[in-house]
Amino acid sequence: MTERVVLAYSGGLDTSVAIGWIAEETGAEVIAVAGDVGQGGEDMEVIRQRALDCGAVESIVADMRDEFADEFCLPALQANALYMDRYPLVSALSRPLIVKHLVAAAKYHGASMVAHGCTGKGNDQVRFEVGIGALGPDLQVLAPVRDSGMTRDKAIAFAEEKGLPIATTKKSPYSIDQNVWGRAVETGFLEDIWNGPIEDVYEYTQDPTTPREADEVTIGFTAGVPTSIDGKPVTVLQAIEQLNARAGAQGVGRLDMVEDRLVGIKSREVYEAPGAIALITAHQELENVTIERDLARFKRTVGQRWAELVYDGLWFSPLKKALDAFVAESQQHVTGEIRLALHGGRAVATGRRSEASLYDFNLATYDTGDTFDQGLAKGFVQLWGMPSKLAAARDQRLGS
User: Fold this and answer.
1) Rounded to the nearest 10 degrees, how much is the dihedral formed by the CA atoms of 153, 159, 161, 162?
2) 3-class state of residue 18 by DSSP
3) How far apart (Å, rounded) are the C-alpha atoms in residues 280 and 285?
4) Phi then psi dihedrals of residue 271, to 5 deg
5) Which of 79, 120, 122, 118 is nearest to 102 (CA)?
6) Selecting from 1.10.940.10, 3.90.1260.10, 3.40.50.1100, 1.10.357.10, what CATH number does the domain 181-291+333-353 have?
7) Which letter does DSSP use for residue 396 in this model?
């Protein structure tokens, strides 16, 4: 029986050439798997046909948008996951979903190998291969761009020699990855970190410096899940899509950062994630109202570690699974509405309401009707400060 390889297929030059390249190098049949994670661009049927035209024996395109929103974006939202306190894990979230479908296709079609088009410099090679190792430990991995000398020049020459139907449109000066959660742009003139990004870098967001009227939006959550926009029910996918449009129109969610890659290098990345940033802003604000202080403090630590694990390709790790359970438990009272003002590149909370609120007006007010017993505060302060006071007295006594 002929060997079979399942290839993570994007429809671009590298993975299109990889179909014939892998077949020639290994003698195996190639099954192409492409996923719609809300990236827009080319029609998925066009991509499916291109894989067949390039020599794939089978071409699968899967609509993964709702699965991506419900099972990958939503946990990131509930964790308030921002790598290095800024980046909402755009690419890192889609990779384990694609891996899940690659491994399922490999098992269904009896393939012994899975291939990807990642380079050796990026994070995605780790996310793919560690994920494949977790879900299909018996599968081998091929990485032709990284391991087989399939440079871009060679890929173009191979495509011309074989007459492959690769689009000959003008090559973008940037490397771009996008999905419904956001868009990542790198390389080209951005590699000089003194160069500022120019407007043609952006697609999801409008220039935030352009004068325009502010947009006010109310986002409703039920147990940490966004369930309404301005009172109208939405799925998680619809919430992200609608806020991409509305927050994007106000320039919300632009990020320009030098980040720490998993492979040890620093990389300049430009991101735009209007829906993600608006949703995380609203979700954090609702948690401030509904989550008790010590749980909230510890959850911030959990969220940071969760983001690092996902960025580092460890979506399927035991620690990530355990942290998921903690985050899920923390969301049981995160129900209510947050009003955001979207304007000038910022999403700012201007109103909060929740039946599960821990905010007590009568305790918080400084006006008549205050129910806070200030007489209790003196003893509390003395007891609270006692360990520090004793330590300071000891240090003075010993001349420390």
Assistant:
1) 160
2) helix
3) 8
4) -120, 155
5) 118
6) 3.90.1260.10
7) H
> Is the pTM above the cut of 0.85?
yes
Residue 87 DSSP code: B
What residue ranges in 146-277 does DSSP mark as E strands?
175-179, 182-186, 215-222, 225-229, 232-233, 254-260, 266-272
From the DSSP assignment, how many helices (H) and strands (E) are in the chain? 14, 14
Q: For 144-155, how does the pLDDT look when each residue is reduced to its tens digit (9 = 90+)?
A: 888 877 777 787
The two beta strands, 182-186 and 336-343, are unpaired
Residue 286 near residue 334 (C-beta atoms within 8 A):
yes
Give CA–CA dist 382/362, Å, rounded.
25
Backbone angles phi, psi at 144, to 5 degrees: -60, -35
The pLDDT of residue 167: 55
Write out residues in the chain with pLDDT < 70, as ranges.
167-172
Rounded to whole angstroms, how far apart are CA atoms 48 and 9? 9
Pairing of strands 140-142, 113-115: parallel
CATH 3.40.50.620 for domain 4-162: yes
**Unique residue bearing structure tokens 């979506």:** 315
CA distances from 328 to 224, 278, 303, 324, 352 (A): 9, 21, 12, 6, 22
| Separation CA 231–CA 240 (nearest Å) | 15
List, for residues 229-268, the tens digit of each pLDDT value. 999 999 999 999 999 999 999 999 999 999 999 989 999 9
Q: What is the pLDDT of residues 355-370, one digit of tens each?
A: 999 999 888 888 888 8
Pairing state between β 232-233 and 254-260: unpaired
**183 contacts 204 by C-beta, under 8 angstroms:** yes
Catalytic residue list: 14, 95, 124, 175
Residue 102: the pLDDT is 97
Domain locations along the chain: 4-162, 181-291+333-353
* pLDDT for the residue numbered 9: 94
Residue 3's identity, in one-letter code, is: E
Residue list for the binding site for L-citrulline: 87, 123, 127, 175, 259, 271
Other Cβ atoms within 10 Å of 232 Cβ, number? 10
